[in-house]
Hints:
By secondary structure, this protein is α+β, with helices and mostly antiparallel strands. The protein folds into 2 domains: 7-79, no CATH class; 80-135, no CATH class. The protein is 36% helix and 12% strand. The chain has 5 helices and 4 strands. β1 (35-40) and β2 (45-50) form a beta hairpin. α2 packs across α4 (99-108). The model has no long low-confidence stretch (mean pLDDT 83).
Amino acid sequence: MENSVxxxxxxxxxxxxxxxxxxxxxxxxxxxxxxxxxxxxxxREEGTAxxxxxxxxxxYLGKEGCTIYDRRPxxxxxxxxxxxxLMYPKKMRKEVMNxxxxxxxxxxxxxxxxAERKELRAIAQLRNTxxxxxx
Length: 135
C-alpha cells in the first residue's frame, strides 16, 4: 500500500529517533535489515525496528534520502504523518511523534481531504474512549 504524501524533500519520519518498526506478517523480511529490539508503545509490546545512527536517524537514511527505497519496510511505504497525527488523541500525539515530525504533520493536515480528516478524528476519539476505559 503506497501513500501519496506531499513530503517533497522532508525526511523527518526517518530522523530524530522516530522508530521504524518491521511487520513480518505484512511482508517485511526482518533478515534483510539492520535491526534492534525496541518497545512499541502503540502495540504495547517489544518489536523489531530498524537501527538508528548515533544521531537518531534511520540507519538507511542517506544524504539524498532512503538508501533502500526499493525494498523499504511496509511502514515506510504506507506511512503518512498527517494520518498518524490525526489518529491519536491529542495527549498521545507528542508521545508517539518526535517534535519536528509532529509540527510537519500539523502543517500538512489541510492537504488531506475533509472526509478523510473526519474519519481519522473519529478513530482518535475511539482510541481516547478505549484509553479512558482502560482497554
